[in-house]
Structures are given as C-alpha cells and as structure tokens.
Amino acid sequence: MRTLGTVCFVNLFEKGTKSAYKDVFDRLEQINDEFSFAKEKSDLYRVNNFAFNKEVVVCDDVFTVISMALKISEMTEGAFDITVEPLVSLWRVNTPTPHVATQAELDERLPLVDYKNVVLNPEKKSVRFLKKGMQLDLGGIAKGFAADEIVKICKTHNIRRAVIDLGGNVYVYGSKEKSQLWNVGIKNPEYPDSVPLLKLAVPEISVVTSGMYERYFESGEKRYHHILSPKTGYPIENELYSVSVLSTNSMLADSLTTAFFVLGTEKALEVLPQVKKEFGLDLSAIFIKKNHQIVYSENFPYPCDVIYEDW
Question: pLDDT per residue over 234-243, tens digit each?
C-alpha cells in the first residue's frame, strides 16, 4: 500500500484476518488524510495555511504528534524542528525539480524556522503561529506515530506477531516464530541497495533509521540530502552517514533519528540519557560514521553483527 508518502508494508502473521488488515489500512488512510500537506481538508493543510491568522483546531492525532514534536525540539535544543517546511519546499529534495538554495533565499526563509513560534492550546486542541509564512513539516515523526497506531490495532485483534515497515520505519511486534528475537537489518550507507551492513537480533521494538543516503540529489559534483539544519538551512554536513534509534515508542524513535543526525554523535549521546529519563523508556542508538566507525549507545542491549565483509 502506498500512503504517507511511501510504500507501507504490513504482515500480520496467523490471525491476520481481512478485518484486521482492513482496520490497519483504514487507519493508515485516515492518518494520511489528517497529515496530508496538499489536501485542503486535512488538518495539516489548515494549520499551514491559516494558523497565523487564528487558532486552528485539529484532531487528536495531529495535536498528539505536534505536541510530541515540540517536546523533542525543546529537549534537543531545536535539532528537531517541524517548522522547517519553508526550507524543505525551497530545496525540493526528492522531487522532480530539486533546487540548490542560495544564501539569499535561505536568509529570507530562516526567520520562519523556530519551533518556539508554534503555540498549542491543550484545552481547545488548537495550533497557532506567531509568524506569518510559517509552515510545518511532520515527515520526520508522522510515520512513527502511524506505526504505533498499527501496534494498537494488533493488540485489539490479538495478533501474535507482525512486521510493520512504513518506508524504512520498522516495527517488529510480538515474538518471531520459534524464537524470541527478530532479525532486523540496517542498510550499508555506501551501498544501500546491497547487503545490509548490520544484523540486529531484537525483541518487540521499533527500529528507525535516518541517513544522508536515503533522499538526495546531485548538482555538479556535490550531493545534497534531505536532512536540513534548522539553523543554517543547508543539508547537515558532519561525521555521520546514518543514525538508528530503537524504542517501543516509534514516534519518539522517528523524531530522534533526525535530531541525533543533526546533533552529531557526541552531542546525541549526551542527550539520549535525558530523553530516556524524561519518557521512562529504554532507548538505544547506533551511529554509522563516514570513517567506517560504528558507535553504539552505552550498554547497547541487542546482539549485533557486521555482515558486510569490507566494512
């Protein structure tokens, strides 16, 4: 199924009835309709087009996601910032018409990027912008929310095990047959279509990866990827190829992969324990660096094999 801007794959083992699959894909379509950037009736469209002039009341789903996004923004000092849409629409990465932004263009749009200018009203479930021209991009968190919602459906239907893959946002649910652990691969950033670089053995958990190799375009001899700095407006250039975050909360993991990529390995490893404490959840991370070093968060709990021989 293609929705949420990607191909979504869901396999409900054993008790995957027609009713269960219908509930899953109906829920995905509902979330897509709520978070659509282009559909005029979607909550995100209404927020992006009218929230400067007035408070825009949104559904529980959209309010939940924006609330989580702003919390992660605060905890990561703006490394994750859903107000980057003016930059995203400028670069147009992963579109037929990508564009290398000029400094003048960035200077014009950067003042619109600041999560602190998004005001939420929990009582009304409303969103308001403090600056005209602001817009939200929820692409770095909405798929994680959707994965968590599918897990809820699995529980409702008493599904014993399932694999949920929403465009690289993977959630393995329940226990693998004849084993307590699932095998999940993490791509080789230099050869993403080839053999995975890492093989993880994990229990029920979400594994989310963000990397510079996922969405990009080339102009001249330079590659421009989709993970933009909210401070400079340019694609992040640091020591990292990719970041993977593992958590039973896929929405949290989804947002943290972007935040940690922006922060870089050292700063991300400082922030991770604070996030764990705040949410009371186990969190682990893997950083794949351009110098072929693989860095694991402290006390990384899952067996992990490097399966690409030349790494």
Answer: 999 999 999 9
